[in-house]
Design goal:
- The complex is a heterodimer of chains A (296) and B (243).
- Chain A contains eleven helices and two strands; from the N terminus they run H-H-E-E-H-H-H-H-H-H-H-H-H.
- Chain A has 296 residues and is mainly alpha-helical.
- Chain A has two domains: 230 residues, Arp2/3 complex 21 kDa subunit ARPC3 (Orthogonal Bundle); 51 residues, no CATH class.
- Chain A has a two-stranded antiparallel ribbon with strand order 1-2.
- About 10% of the residues of chain A have low confidence.
- Chain B is mostly helical and 243 residues long.
- Helices cover 77% and strands 0% of the residues of chain B.
- Chain B is built from eleven helices and no strands.
- In chain B, helix 3 packs antiparallel against helix 7 and helix 6 runs antiparallel to helix 7.
- The relative contact order of chain B is 0.15.
- The chains are: A mainly alpha (296), B mainly alpha (243).
- Chains A and B meet through helix 1, helix 2, strand 1, helix 4 and helix 7 of A and helix 1, helix 3, helix 6, helix 7 and helix 9 of B.
């Protein structure tokens, strides 16, 4: 579910745009570690593969068909960090070239699908990929990756104040569940076919627990579930949260202190000052990313 | 195909095409932020920004109707949410969703159809995006068409073998066949990536792309930057002041 521009409220897209670059920068670093430049064409071509895979239809039920989304499949074959990088590149190309998902919403989409979705998709495989429940783990990974990204997107939309009556919410949750199950089934079957062609396409999960990954994956799942519960019980969530906790008052002073009395000042527009503060923030984030990502 | 048309458009020769990708990125970002943070007088603001984009598209000598239609790809998704908002008793929000998402898509479309993607990605590199990620994106774009064509061939072959005839095989068998096709596509893509890497090694790839042309700011770029940043901001201030 690619969120276009115009759907998310400013606090939501701005926060996620600020959060995404450092995370992606870190993931890029992890993906680069221990790999030569062979990885560049490999990741690029596998990204093109995920695009092309959407053309191959899987029959599901009567007259309908589904297609691969790919996060979990990439995580199980290329490793989670590389999969995050490939999915981020896919989302960037989709937003730029296909107008599928917005530019300001890119941070949100990257976090939903390329980071949290991929990690959640890899988590079951990491935990149970060596046991007898391997196939079930792959299935669960595919299902979880789609379900978690869709739930996160839904939560972000609800927090942004997009109205959704309970009936529509119920229908969309049911649709998410169905597409999650389809993705799980596709991922499991394709992984089986891949192992039949060449077993070493599929990465064995690292022995021993890498607790950081497990924690991150679990946090992702909890975040998605909790986000929807919070957002659906509290429409216009951020505004309400701000009212309840009194953050809105603090936020106003925080923003206005450098530009005192900005509402009466030049051009008479508070949003310009806010936008300026936002741009300064973006520049800071950009600097951090340049430090993290520019190694080579 | 959508991206082939955009690619052709992006190789035009208008004044807008010649601008430095960085100033175009900056102008589009300002446009998007101005639009996304607007809450008042949306109809007027939307009309004014739409006019600005149309003028820009004419300046770039893009087929206006084609560009407007292509930006419409966001509408099906948006229409669903707009309809839901309408039903929930908030038609104004629904209309705002449609207007904002359509204009944002149109602005991005203009950026992409006046800047070849490699140049655009180089522009992003200079804004601090990780080079590795951008190289992956560039390879992705380069091989998108190649791998898609391969997938289309496989699909055609499957259809020729009767993949749509429900009676011949059960759903489960067809599902497994599709999975097999995907696995083969995966294996071929993997092998292709290895070939590409060997070819790159043979040409002594230094680990990054060597740009053939250095990007330089010209007077026109500075003018465009000032104009592109000030126009949406001034329009919004003006409209909110007057209203």
């Amino acid at each position: 579910m690619h969120i276009p521009d115009g759907f998310l409220s400013t606090p939501v897209w701005a926060a996620l745009d600020a959060a995404a670059p450092p995370i992606v920068g870190y993931v890029v670093r992890v993906a680069q570690r221990g790999f030569d430049d062979a990885k560049v064409p490999l990741l690029g071509v596998m990204g093109a593969f995920v695009f092309a895979a959407q053309m191959i239809n899987f029959p599901v039920g009567i007259g309908t068909s589904g297609h691969l989304v790919g996060g979990a499949l990439l995580a199980c074959t290329l490793g989670p960090a590389a999969a995050c990088v490939v999915m981020s590149a896919i989302l960037a190309i989709q937003a730029l070239v296909f107008q599928d998902g917005g530019i300001l919403a890119l941070g949100a989409n990257v976090i939903n699908m390329a980071i949290v979705g991929v990690l959640a998709g890899y988590l079951p495989y990491h935990l149970w990929g060596r046991s007898r429940g391997r196939r079930a783990a792959i299935f669960a990974g595919g299902a979880l990756s789609v379900a978690v990204s869709a739930l996160l997107a839904l939560a972000e939309l609800l927090i942004s104040g997009v109205r959704m009556p309970a009936s529509v919410l119920g229908v969309s949750l049911a649709l998410f569940l169905v597409s999650a199950l389809i993705e799980g089934a596709i991922t499991m079957t394709v992984m089986g076919a891949l192992e039949a062609i060449q077993p070493n396409f599929v990465r064995q999960p690292a022995a021993g627990g890498r607790y950081a990954l497990v924690a991150a994956g679990l946090a992702a799942v909890l975040l998605a579930a909790g986000g929807v519960v919070f957002a659906s019980t509290a429409p216009d969530g951020i505004a309400r949260l701000a009212r309840q906790t009194g953050i809105s008052g603090h936020a106003r002073t925080l923003i206005s202190t450098p530009f005192k009395n900005y509402e009466a000042s030049w051009l008479g527009a508070g949003w310009l000052a806010q936008a300026g503060a936002g741009l300064v923030g973006l520049a800071l984030v950009g600097g951090v990313c340049a430090l993290i990502g520019r190694k080579r | 195909m959508h991206h082939v048309t955009l690619d052709r458009w992006s190789r035009g020769a208008s004044a807008l095409h010649r601008r430095d990708p960085r100033v175009k990125i900056a102008a589009v970002l300002v446009f998007l932020v101005v639009l996304a943070t607007a809450h008042r007088e949306l109809a007027w603001l939307g009309a004014a920004l739409f006019a600005v984009l149309c003028v820009a598209a004419r300046q770039a000598r893009l087929p206006l109707a084609g560009a407007l239609a292509r930006a419409g790809v966001v509408l099906p998704f948006t229409a669903v949410f707009a309809g839901v908002s309408w039903l929930a008793g908030d038609p104004a929000r629904g209309a705002a969703l449609v207007m904002k998402s359509y204009l944002s898509a149109l602005a991005v479309l203009l950026l992409v159809s006046t800047t070849p993607l490699p140049l655009l990605l180089r522009g992003f590199e200079m804004t601090g995006a990780p080079r590795f990620l951008l190289m992956v994106a560039q390879f992705l774009y380069r091989y998108l068409f190649v791998v898609s064509e391969e997938a289309q061939h496989m699909r055609k072959a499957a259809l020729a073998r009767g993949a749509t005839l429900g009676g011949l095989a059960g759903n489960a068998a067809r599902f497994r066949a599709a999975a097999g096709a995907l696995a083969v596509l995966f294996a071929r893509s993997y092998a292709r990536a290895e070939e590409i890497h060997r070819a790159m090694l043979a040409r002594s790839f230094p680990g990054y792309f060597r740009p053939l042309i250095e990007l330089h700011f010209h007077g026109g770029d500075v003018m465009f930057l000032v104009l592109g940043v000030l126009t949406p901001v001034a329009l919004r201030v003006l409209i909110e002041r007057v209203a």
